[in-house]
Specification:
This protein is α+β, with helices and mostly antiparallel strands and 890 residues long. The chain is built from 30 helices and 28 strands. The chain binds adenosine-5'-diphosphate (ADP) and magnesium ion. Pfam families: Cation_ATPase (PF13246), Cation_ATPase_C (PF00689), Cation_ATPase_N (PF00690), E1-E2_ATPase (PF00122).
C-alpha cells in the first residue's frame, strides 16, 4: 500500500504522479479495483445495518402487546395453558407479519439510498468514467466542473477559471480561485492551499482536473466533520401526526376496554377472563401499527416511484407531492427530448438549410436547395467554426459526449467538413446560465493566428458585439442591423427552433480573461430543433385535470418557449400575453408579478435568481410549488420550493443535493407520475384507516351492546385477537398498496394542512361502524335463540365479522366513488387476502382440530350462506351512506 503524501500541495505534479504510481491518463481499471480494497471506500462511515433480529423483536416493543403477554402468562399459570399458547401464537404471527412489512420497507429505502448516492467522473485508462463517488481511489484523476461536489481531496493538475466554494470547510462564503500551476510551502494553511481542492467543497465556476491524494476518512473533511448523507431518514408530518393519534386511540380504547371488562366482572365473569378479554379488546381496537403501516406505505410508494424513475431523497416530500398545485419546469430536456439537430443557419443575410438527422455527421448545407461551398461564404464559415470550437462536447469511442446543444453544433461543423484538429484552445470563459454565453480563444495551428470565438443567446451576444460580418466584409453593428437580426431570431424561434448566436474576433496575442468578451464581430445564427417529448402532452393534460398548473421556466428565447408551450398545451394560445421575459419580469413589482402569474405560464430568458423570486411569490399566494433545476445556481430555488426536483442526467451534484427528488430520466412526465404516486399513497392510507377503524369500532359497539342487552359474551378474547391480528392484517396491508382510483387525477390537490381525518372520513367511519353493528348484532341474538348455545352463537358472530370485513374492505377502496364506479376486484392482493380470510375461517370452524383452540363449533351450510348474503347485502346501504356523506361533508 502506497503511503498517501502528507503535504501534496508542496510537491510538484511529477513527484506526485510518481509517488502515487499514476499518470494524467489515470489508473488502469484493475489497479483502481485493487486500490479500492486497500484504501477502502471513499466514504466517512458505513451506515449501521439494522439486524433482522432487532427488527423482529421491535415488533413486540409495544405496551399493549406487553400487557397481553402478561395476561396470557397469568392465564397459563392458573391452568389455562391452551388459551395462553394460542394467544402467544397469534401475537407471534402478527409479529412476523409486521416484521416482513418493515423489512421490505427498509430494503426499499436502502435501495433508494443507493440510487441517490453521489457520483463522480474520473479518468481511467484515458477515458472519462462516471462512477459512484464512494469508489474513487487515491491515484484517480478526478474531473471537476461547475456544480460538482468535490468527491475527494485532490492536488489540481489543471485549472481553468476554477472557483471553489469552501464555505462548509472554512466558513468563508466567497469562492476561492484555484491554480494548478502553484507549488506551495509545506506549512501553508489549509484555506491558502490554492493548488488543492478538498472533499465536500463545491465547484462554482470553471473546470479542472485533480489527482486524488486522499479519500474517505483520510480527507481533510473526513478529519473534521461528517459528510452529508444521501437519503435522510426523517419522519414525515403524517407519520408524526399519526403517532399522536395512535396514542390517543390507544388510551381511549384502554378506557373502553377497562369499562367493558368491569361490566363483565359485574355480570359474573371471572376477573381473570375479563382481564384477558379487556386487554385483547384494547390490542385489537387500536391500530397501534398505524405509524408502521404509514412508513410501509410510504416505502412501497417510493420504490414504485423509483420504478417510474423518480428517486425520492426525503420521505416528507412524498406527502407534499400529493398536494402540489403548481409545477415549475425547465424546458430543454424536461419538456423536450434534448436531442438537438441544427436545421437552419442564418449568416450574411442568407438563410441556409442543413440536412441530415440526429448525431449522424453526414449532411449537406444548402442555399435555395443547392449545396454550397462554405469557404465561399466567410460569414457562414465563421458561424460554423465558432459552433465547432467554442464547444466542450467531444467524440469518444465513436460516441458524442457532452451537452446536446453543443453536440448539435459540433455535428453541424463536422457536416460542413471543418477540422477541429487544426486549432488548439488556449483560453476560455465557461458558460453559465446567468451570462448565457461562453467564449474560447484558439490558435490556428497552420498560421499561428489567434481567434476569439463566442456563442450564446442573441441578447447576450449583441451586448458585446460592435460589428457584423456580411460575406467577406465587416460593418459596424447599428440599431437597424440589430433589429434585423432580432427579427430573424424571432422567425426561427417561431418554428420552435432553439436559436444560438455566434461572434468572433481576431487578436494578436492571448488577451486576459476580462478582455475577451468585447468588440466582437457578429457572424450568424444557428437554429436547432429539439422535438418535444411525445408523452409530455398527455402529462400536461393530466395536470390540468388534476387541478395542477404547469409553468415553463426557461433560459431560452421567448418565442421558442411559447411555441413549444403551445405545442404541449401549457398555454391555450400562442399569444405573447401568455409569456413573460426576464426583462419584463424585472420591471414588475411583486404585486404586479403575482397578478401576471395568474395567467402567464411561460417565463423566458430567466436566470436562477428569477426562479427563486417566482417560487417565493407562488408560495405567498398559497401554492404548493414543485420546481425543477439542474445548475449550480438553481440550489436556492430548489431549496425554497416545497418540492425541489433535480435532473438526474443533466443535473449538477449541487442541484441534486439541494433537491427532494431526483428525476432519473429528466422527464416532465415522470414528475406527474410522482405526483400521482404521492396522491395514491395518501389515498391508500385513508382507505386503510377507513377499513380498520370502522371495522374495529363496530366490534366495540357489538360487544358493548351485547353487554348492555344482558347477553352472553359475544366474542371471546381469542376471537377478538384472531380477527384483528390475523384475518384483518392482510386486507389492511393490501389496501395500503391499492392501485389508484380512477378519479385520483381528476380531483383537485389535497390542501396540505388537511390531515388524514377529514370530516368526511370521520363521518364515514362513524356511519359504517354503526351500520356493521346493526347488521351483526342480530346474528348473535338469532344464533343464540336458535341454538341456545353460547359457543355456537359466538361462532356465527365471529364468522359474520370475518365475512363482513371482506365487504368493508371492498367498500373502503374509495371514499369518493361508489363501488360500481370502480372495479372492486382490481387489487389482486386484496382478492388474495379475502381468499385467505374465507379459507382460514372455514378451516377453524369446520375442522374439529381447531375448534378446541379457537373456541368454535362447526356450523351448517345454511349459516354460511346467511352470513355471506348478509355481508354482500351490507354493500348497498353502505354505498348509499357514502353518497349521502359525500354530499354533506368534504
Ligand atoms: P434552458 O435549459 O432553459 O434551455 P439554459 O440555461 O440551458 O436554458 O440556456 C439558456 C440560453 O443560454 C440558451 O437559450 C442559449 O442561448 C444559451 N446557452 C445554452 N447553452 C449554452 C452553451 N453551452 N454555450 C453558450 N450558450 C449557451
Ligand atoms: Mg439547460
Amino acid at each position: 500500500m502506497t503511503k498517501l503524501p502528507p503535504n501534496p500541495h508542496s510537491l510538484t505534479l511529477e513527484e506526485l504522479f510518481k509517488l502515487l504510481e499514476t499518470s494524467i491518463t489515470g489508473l488502469s481499471v484493475a489497479e483502481a479495483k485493487k486500490r479500492l480494497d486497500t484504501y477502502g471506500p471513499n466514504e466517512l462511515e458505513e451506515a449501521p445495518k439494522k439486524s433482522p433480529l432487532k427488527l423482529f423483536l421491535a415488533q413486540f416493543a409495544n405496551v399493549l402487546i406487553f400487557i397481553l403477554l402478561i395476561a396470557a402468562s397469568i392465564s397459563f399459570l392458573v391452568g389455562d395453558e391452551i388459551e395462553a399458547v394460542v394467544i402467544l401464537l397469534i401475537v407471534l404471527a402478527c409479529g412476523v407479519l409486521g416484521f416482513i412489512q418493515e423489512w421490505k420497507a427498509d430494503k426499499a429505502l436502502a435501495a433508494l439510498k443507493e440510487m441517490a448516492a453521489p457520483e463522480a467522473i474520473v479518468i481511467r485508462e484515458g477515458k472519462h468514467l462516471k462512477i459512484p463517488a464512494r469508489e474513487v481511489v487515491p491515484g484517480d484523476i478526478l474531473v471537476l466542473a461547475a456544480g460538482d461536489k468535490v468527491a475527494a481531496d485532490v492536488r489540481l493538475v489543471e485549472s481553468i477559471n476554477l472557483k471553489i466554494d469552501e464555505a462548509p470547510f472554512t466558513g468563508e462564503s466567497v469562492p476561492v480561485s484555484k491554480d494548478a500551476s502553484l507549488v506551495l510551502p509545506p506549512e501553508t494553511p489549509l484555506p491558502d492551499r490554492r493548488n488543492m481542492a478538498f472533499a465536500g467543497t463545491t465547484v462554482i465556476n470553471g473546470r479542472g482536473l485533480g489527482l486524488v491524494v486522499a479519500t474517505g476518512k483520510a480527507t481533510e473533511f473526513g478529519k473534521i466533520a461528517h459528510m452529508l448523507k444521501g437519503v435522510e431518514e426523517e419522519k414525515t408530518p403524517l407519520e408524526k401526526r399519526l403517532a399522536v393519534i395512535g396514542r390517543w386511540l390507544g388510551v381511549l380504547s384502554l378506557i373502553v376496554a377497562a369499562v367493558a371488562a368491569a361490566f363483565g366482572i359485574m355480570r359474573g365473569h371471572s376477573w381473570l377472563e375479563m382481564f384477558l378479554w379487556g386487554v385483547s379488546l384494547a390490542v385489537a381496537a387500536v391500530p397501534e401499527s398505524l405509524p408502521a403501516v404509514v412508513t410501509a406505505a410510504l416505502a412501497i410508494g417510493v420504490s414504485r416511484m423509483a420504478k417510474r424513475r423518480a428517486i425520492v431523497k426525503r420521505l416528507p416530500a412524498v406527502e407534499t407531492l400529493g398536494s402540489t398545485t403548481v409545477i415549475c419546469t425547465d424546458k430543454t430536456g424536461t419538456l423536450t427530448k434534448n436531442e438537438m439537430t441544427v436545421k437552419k443557419i442564418w449568416a450574411g443575410d442568407k438563410l441556409f438549410e442543413i440536412t441530415g438527422t440526429g448525431y449522424e455527421t453526414k449532411g449537406q448545407i444548402l442555399y435555395k436547395g443547392k449545396p454550397v461551398d462554405i469557404f465561399h461564404h466567410p460569414d457562414l464559415y465563421h458561424t460554423l467554426l465558432v459552433g465547432l470550437l467554442c464547444n466542450d462536447a467531444r467524440l469518444e469511442d465513436g460516441k458524442f459526449i457532452g451537452d446536446p446543444t453543443e453536440i448539435a453544433l459540433l455535428v453541424a461543423g463536422l457536416k460542413a467538413g471543418l477540422n477541429p484538429e487544426a486549432f488548439e484552445r488556449v483560453a476560455e470563459v465557461p458558460f453559465d446560465s446567468d451570462r448565457k454565453r461562453m467564449s474560447v480563444v484558439v490558435r490556428e495551428k497552420a498560421n499561428g493566428r489567434y481567434l476569439i470565438l463566442t456563442k450564446g443567446s442573441l441578447e447576450s451576444l449583441l451586448g458585446i458585439s460592435s460589428h457584423y460580418q456580411k460575406d467577406d466584409k465587416i460593418f459596424p453593428l447599428n440599431a437597424q442591423e440589430k433589429q434585423k437580426i432580432a427579427q430573424m431570431t424571432d422567425a426561427m424561434a417561431d418554428e420552435a427552433l432553439r436559436v444560438m448566436a455566434f461572434a468572433f474576433r481576431e487578436v494578436e496575442s492571448v488577451p486576459s480573461e476580462n478582455e475577451i468578451e468585447r468588440d466582437l464581430i457578429f457572424c450568424g445564427l444557428q437554429g436547432m430543433i429539439d422535438p418535444p417529448r411525445p408523452e409530455v402532452r398527455e402529462a400536461v393534460k393530466k395536470c390540468h385535470e388534476a387541478g395542477i398548473r404547469v409553468i415553463m421556466i426557461t433560459g431560452d428565447h421567448a418565442k421558442t418557449a411559447l411555441t413549444i408551450g403551445y405545442d404541449l398545451g401549457i398555454v391555450p394560445e400562442k399569444r405573447p400575453a401568455f409569456a413573460l421575459t426576464a426583462r419584463e419580469l424585472e420591471n414588475l413589482s411583486d404585486h404586479e408579478l403575482k397578478e401576471k402569474l395568474k395567467k402567464v405560464s411561460v417565463f423566458a430568458r430567466v436566470s436562477p435568481a428569477h426562479k427563486l423570486r417566482l417560487v417565493k411569490l407562488l408560495k405567498e399566494d398559497g401554492h404548493i410549488v414543485a420546481m425543477t433545476g439542474d445548475g449550480v445556481n438553481d440550489a436556492p430555488a430548489l431549496k425554497a420550493a416545497d418540492i425541489g426536483i433535480a435532473m438526474g442526467i443533466t443535473g449538477t451534484q449541487v442541484a441534486k443535493e439541494a433537491s427532494d427528488i431526483i428525476l432519473a430520466d429528466d422527464n416532465f412526465a415522470t414528475i406527474v407520475a410522482a405526483v400521482e404516486e404521492g396522491r395514491t399513497i395518501f389515498d391508500n392510507i385513508k382507505k386503510y384507516m377507513l377499513f380498520l377503524l370502522s371495522f374495529n369500532l363496530s366490534e366495540i359497539l357489538v360487544l358493548i351492546a351485547g353487554f348492555l342487552k344482558g347477553l352472553a359474551l359475544p366474542l371471546t378474547a381469542i376471537h377478538i385477537l384472531w380477527i384483528n391480528l390475523v384475518t384483518n392484517g392482510p386486507p389492511a396491508l393490501a389496501l395500503g398498496v391499492d392501485p389508484p382510483a380512477p378519479d385520483l387525477m381528476k380531483r383537485p390537490p389535497r390542501p396540505p394542512q388537511e390531515g388524514v381525518f377529514t370530516r368526511r372520513l370521520v363521518a364515514l367511519i362513524g356511519a359504517f361502524s354503526v351500520l356493521i353493528a346493526f347488521f351483526l348484532l342480530p346474528v348473535f341474538v338469532y344464533g343464540f335463540s336458535a341454538s341456545q348455545s353460547v359457543i355456537f352463537s359466538q361462532t356465527v358472530l365471529f364468522t359474520g365479522f370475518v365475512f363482513m370485513a371482506v365487504a368493508v374492505a371492498y367498500v373502503s377502496r374509495s371514499e369518493y366513488l361508489n363501488i360500481w364506479r370502480y372495479n372492486p376486484l382490481a387489487n389482486k392482493w386484496l382478492n388474495l387476502s379475502v381468499l385467505f380470510m374465507v379459507a382460514s375461517q372455514i378451516m377453524i370452524v369446520q375442522c374439529p382440530f381447531f375448534n378446541k383452540y379457537l373456541h368454535t363449533v362447526p356450523i351448517s351450510e345454511k349459516w354460511w350462506f346467511i352470513l355471506a348474503a348478509l355481508a354482500l347485502f351490507y354493500i348497498f346501504p353502505a354505498e348509499i351512506l357514502k353518497s349521502l356523506i359525500s354530499r354533506f361533508f368534504r
